[in-house]
Amino acid sequence: IPHLSSHTLAALQEFYLEQQQREGMKTSQGFNQYSIGSIEEDWQLSQFWYSDETASCLAKEAAVAAGEGGRIACVSAPSVYQKLKELDGKDFSVCILEYDKRFSVYGEEFIFYDYNQPLNLPETLLPHSFDIVIADPPYLSEECLQKTAETIKYLTKGKILLCTGAVMEEQAAKHLGVKMCKFIPKHLRNLANEFRCYVNYASGLD
Question: Where are the annotated coiled coils located (predicted)?
Fold first, then answer.
């Protein structure tokens, strides 16, 4: 009869316990639907959430760059969207463009987005109507970046904040005219690829 080793069994039990605790948190009164991890990563969709510190830093940068009454679009960057929603009292509006329909819990601010159809967007998303677009293409490929870049250029009035691998530096400059910042984003889980931020304006990330 096949059986699990004691080490694997213990790890499995720990995983189930963590899952139960998370579910318990969700049903408890103080649950925050915008907290990072409230919707779990789906590795099949190449989802890796930022650390709390990184998400806060990027959200604050986007809010400052957008300015008072500004509009922010988060393209495949849900953890930044969640942090922006936690910045109470800030005078800006934000929407999330995302392939994962679990994020539709965020109502009218959720816009279904497939980078393979970069300009298949609702008519309500007017061209050049966002003060800043923050984007994190799901895959480290030039094709994915090029298609996401079409969306970004359609949406932004000018300012772009791109998060992607360090290996994409040349392609990021080619497709979006962005330069690498000193700030190094971190994720909840360590990624194999070095990750960086790129901008095309004078940002606070240097």
Answer: none
